[in-house]
């Protein structure tokens, strides 16, 4: 309505009044047009609303549309990149979970190693104790060997003092000391009972029914004198 395109209230006329103008609508003017004055804002609005877009404006619009198109065309790549990043994040979460499992396994291994170390320490102490026991056993064995050697030597020496008497029949109520005393009386060399270590019957390998008499004297001299007296008979 009018050149400034006012609304009815702004133009100073009602819609009903404007319709009643009839043919006079073509020549009707608002108060502003009648006086020839216009506010700066109205002039500016008129200029903007009435201006035809130039070639430069169209070119700028085309460039903006091109930029928007490029941005839109890159959206699939951005979406793919986001999905890749999400997949990487998921992989990182899996790796983190695996690392936690590895950490737990290492902790378990560490605990096991500590347990084995403690056991090895105990075993080492036991080995040291066994080594000490072994050393004690070795010392005892050496002493036993010496004692056995001494016993063998004493036995050999005692055998030198032994007299073997053969041919004396075995009786159920015999007294070997009495037999030795009687033999000494017959050969003329009696041996006091106090000079006898022991006297016993010894079975023979070939004849178990016959047992010789073994007399062990305190000294070899007694043995030799007894044998010499017997040989004179």
Automatic annotation (TrEMBL):
InterPro entries (alphabetical): Transposase_22
Protein name (record): (apollo) hypothetical protein
Keywords associated with the record: Coiled coil
Coiled coil: 113-157
Keyword Coiled coil: yes
Lineage: Eukaryota, Metazoa, Ecdysozoa, Arthropoda, Hexapoda
């Amino acid at each position: 309505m009018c050149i400034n395109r006012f609304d009815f209230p702004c133009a100073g006329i009602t819609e009903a009044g404007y319709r009643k103008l009839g043919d006079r609508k073509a020549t009707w003017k608002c108060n502003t047009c009648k006086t020839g004055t216009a506010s700066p804002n109205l002039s500016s609005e008129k200029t903007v609303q009435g201006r035809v877009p130039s070639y430069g404006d169209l070119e700028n619009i085309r460039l903006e549309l091109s930029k928007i198109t490029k941005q839109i065309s890159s959206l699939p790549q951005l979406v793919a990149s986001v999905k890749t990043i999400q997949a990487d994040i998921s992989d990182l979460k899996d790796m983190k979970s695996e690392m936690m499992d590895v950490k737990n396994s290492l902790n378990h291994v560490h605990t096991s190693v500590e347990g084995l170390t403690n056991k090895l320490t105990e075993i080492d102490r036991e080995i040291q104790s066994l080594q000490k026991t072994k050393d004690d056993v070795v010392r005892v064995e050496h002493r036993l060997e010496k004692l056995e050697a001494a016993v063998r030597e004493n036995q050999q020496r005692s055998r030198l003092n032994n007299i073997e008497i053969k041919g004396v029949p075995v009786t159920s109520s015999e007294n070997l000391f009495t037999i030795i005393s009687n033999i000494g009386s017959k050969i003329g060399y009696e041996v006091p009972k106090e000079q006898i270590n022991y006297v016993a019957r010894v079975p023979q390998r070939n004849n178990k029914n016959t047992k010789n008499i073994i007399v062990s004297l305190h000294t070899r001299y007694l043995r030799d004198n007894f044998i010499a007296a017997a040989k004179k008979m």
